[in-house]
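Researcher: I'm preparing a figure for a lab meeting and need a structural model of a single chain. I don't have an experimental structure, so a prediction will have to do for now. The sequence is pasted below. Please return the structure as tokens so I can convert it later.
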Amino acid sequence: MNEWNIQSRAHACEACQQPFADRQGYHTLLFDVPPELRRTDICEACWQKQTAQADPAPAGFISHWQGVYEAPPPVVDAIQKETAETLLRKLIEQNDPRYAPAGYILAVMLERKRVLKVKEQILRAGQRTFIYEQPRTGDIFTIVDPDLHLDQLEQVQRDVAALLEHGLTPPPPAEDPPPVTAAEAASELAPTPLERLRPTNLPPVSDLAALQTRLGYSFHDAALLRLALTHPSVAHEQGAPLQHNQRLEFLGDAVLQLALTRELYEKFPDFNEGPLTKARAKLVNRRTLAIHGRALGLGEHLILSRGEEINGGRDRSSALADAYEALVGAIFMDGGYDVARAFILHEFGAAFGSLDVIPILENPKGELQELLQARSPEAPHYHVVSTTGPDHDRVFECTVHHAGAELARGAGKSKKAAESEAALAALNKLRAESCPPADHASPKVMPG
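Model: Understood. Here is the structure written out token by token.
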């Protein structure tokens, strides 16, 4: 961790030595001066002089950005609660490689909370290095990426939670601890500082047991569930052929389509392919799948890349919809089709399971034309037969005709609405006429 450091903003121009005034603009130049990265802060006048000379960039120059100097507040002698930022500063001061993963996670947390801003990302000696700035103080944090693997992330996040809870001082031991024999002591490896700090009562960061309770299904192979929750961005960031959830998403989409198609087919025997296809599309689309994913709380369990985490990937509808399909695929692989189908029908029960009408026809005029042209090439015709009410609250009545006969009537606040109501009434009439007599009412078409 010897390449990790914090470089504070200068209080005076490092070219002309003039002190910065409060709210004065300044320029920061970053140089690679082995074995470290070094910053230089200069005032606007000196920056203009340097750029006017049109000299080539100095050796080791990496980056440049502008800032606004803020006079430091008066020092107060007060006890302050440990924060992620103060903890990160202490870890860097410790310069202990064992704290490198925790420091990296803290930096990511601070970036997500907009406490730190990434100013530069470079590759040095084969390691990715991030240059963060604290905009309020102007301090620069140099943080080396420890290249954590997926199986390490959960433990490091626990370590961070322990450090935030107890700081660098381990919690006091319980009162009157039982004596430890020499044999017991010899059988245990000496704990690392992080292990001494780790509380035993913290729940795992990704509590898959709680998620499985919400699912109503316990996986025999938990690896399938973890795979369903692994976003493709993880593989992109690692630059390695890591498995992620896209294959399970592909499988889950097919299982969803099959289960809901069969249910529609059996529940509505009087409808042809067109209405059934549109009904299925209304039940299974990116928006509805994201809603189901949010309801299950999938976002909090997603395994994301650092960049996707920072950019709000846990609540992104596309990520939730993909994870939901992958989850269905994982249940299918773990428990078989019958288990997956039961899960799907339970999930879609409110929107589907108790339906006695088909939830489609956002375009009843189109549906009516499709139905009639299956019998005759002639299209239906619409006529406004009356208009009632004041100018600001008109009601239109419309009829729909086919082959010279009136099929039905409808009313609405506009001509378009009246035509749609007429088409809907005609569809229900034609469906009823085409159905054979039965002891129960025929299913009706309802607007979406």
